[in-house]
């Protein structure tokens, strides 16, 4: 796409992109990290990878038998 454009068109496109980016609200990384940690810790009690799945809700446990490789 850029190969078919002149240098002037490319610079105009870059300028338009920079104008969009300058109006983007920014927050410090430390704030974003704190929010992410709080979000993940809020979901922690219901996380099946951390807590595990009870036997009555686990579709892979029970009387289904299993696979035996001999």
SSE pattern, N- to C-terminal: HHH
Number of strands: 0
Rounded to the nearest angstrom, the distance between the terminal CA atoms is 58 Å
The helical percent reads 40-55%
Are there runs of 5+ residues with pLDDT below 50, and where? Answer: none
Give the rounded overall mean pLDDT: 87
Q: Which percent band covers the strand fraction? A: under 5%
Shape: elongated
What can be said about the biggest beta sheet? none
Q: What value does the Rg take, in angstroms?
A: 26 Å
Question: Class by helix and strand content?
Answer: mainly alpha
Please tally the helical runs, counting DSSP H or I stretches of 4 or more residues: 3
Notable features of this structure?
70 residues, mainly alpha, 3 helices, elongated, membrane, Guanine nucleotide-binding protein subunit gamma
Write a structural description.
- Keywords: Cell membrane, Lipoprotein, Membrane, Transducer.
- One of its GO terms (molecular function) is G-protein beta-subunit binding.
- Helix content is 50%, strand content 0%.
- The protein is mostly helical and 70 residues long.
- The longest helix has 16 residues, at 7-22.
